[in-house]
Amino acid sequence: MHPENIPLYNEVALGVHAPIYSYYARRIVEETSITTGHCLDIGCGGGYLGLALAQITALDFVFCDQSGEMLACAQENIAHFHCATRAKIVHGSVQQIPLEDQSMDLVISRGSLPFWEDLPTAFTEIYRVLRPGGQAYIGGGLGDPNTREAMKRLRRQTYPDWQEKQRPPHHSDQQYQEGLTRAGIHPFLVTRNDEGLWIRFRKEIQ
Ligand SMILES: C[S@@+](CC[C@H](N)C(=O)[O-])C[C@H]1O[C@@H](n2cnc3c(N)ncnc32)[C@H](O)[C@@H]1O
């Protein structure tokens, strides 16, 4: 993201878009039941999903992004949410995650996946940093389908000039499936519905 667009993106993410992140945070807890241990938010941007998850769990967080500017924004948001003692910031790419093997109980990501150029390597890296029994919940979407139109209305009223950002289109389901398979991950779930596009998998306990 161009640095000059970050303040507005951040304001919208913390305001009108905040329900998107709290919705997926709740879904992650419902689906994974992981509420303690260590969570990596990869492609975290300003840290919105991890910070929403921090509100409803006792997890500690690593926020990782390839953009130093987005991480500076995450740093401010972490302080704003009084999460500094539970959060670490790491600069890096999903294709070379600067974390030790088997160090994370949960890996989450929202809105970053379409930017990942090398899916097999990205999924291999996520799998590598998961502990046995750990889970990944990765994808993107605009939150609760039931409140989405109201949120968009509010956004139009508050930010009449807001335009959806240009992002690369999602990879195809087949590309995701191939990437996961080439990473040696099995089983996995790729779903594309009114909740968005989400990929879930677990690292089996040997
Ligand atoms: C649209 S923003 C989403 C930010 C945030 N997760 C959210 O949901 O609002 C995409 C983010 O992914 C990051 N990103 C893109 N490719 C990446 C990669 N290969 N490794 C790590 N981060 C990446 C970008 O720097 C950017 O912060």
- N-end to C-end Cα span: 40 Å
User: Which class of secondary structure composition applies to the elements?
Assistant: alpha/beta
Q: What portion of residues belong to β-strands?
A: 15-25%
Tally the helices: what do you get? Answer: 7
| CATH architect. name | 3-Layer(aba) Sandwich
Strand order of the largest sheet: 3-2-1-4-5-7-6
Q: How large is the radius of gyration?
A: 16 Å
Structure description:
The protein is α/β, with parallel strands linked by helices and 206 residues long. The protein has a single domain, classed as Rossmann fold. Helix content is 38%, strand content 23%. The chain has seven helices and seven strands. It has helices at residues 6-14, 18-32, 48-56, 68-80, 119-129, 148-158, 173-182, and strands at 38-42, 60-65, 87-91, 104-110, 130-140, 188-193, 196-202. A seven-stranded mixed beta sheet has the order 3-2-1-4-5-7-6, with helices on both faces. The longest helix is centred in the first third of the chain and has 15 residues, at 18-32. The protein starts with 5 loop residues before the first helix and ends with a strand.
